[in-house]
Amino acid sequence: DMLRDLNAFLNEKEPWKTKDKKVIGFVEKRVLKVSELLKPFIPESSEKVIESIKTKKPIILIKKIPKEEFD
After folding, report:
1. pTM for this predicted structure
2. CA 38 to CA 49: how far, in whole Å?
């Protein structure tokens, strides 16, 4: 439910358009919480997300696979 609610919140508030700092701060806190909860299952990815939020440096968790590689 937490992720579903967060997704609905993001779709409603659209912080990528509004740049609302309160909304962005709220989302950061929720993503940190989710990352902590997922640590036992995906420890490396969770740590990367936590570090990215704390340092404000973007990361790429999943690299884009070129379409040609699917053929």
Report:
1. 0.78
2. 11
Residue 29, H or E segment = helix 21-38
Q: Give the separation between CA 71 and CA 68, rounded to whole angstroms.
A: 6
Average pLDDT over residues 45-58: 94
State the average pLDDT over residues 56-65: 89
Q: According to the model, what pLDDT value does residue 13 have?
A: 97
Q: Residue 71: pLDDT above 80?
A: no
Q: Is 61 exposed, middle or buried (0-12, 13-18, 19+ CB in 10 A)?
A: exposed
Cα–Cα distance between 4 and 50 in angstroms, integer? 20
Cα–Cα distance for residue pair 56/47, rounded to 1 Å: 14
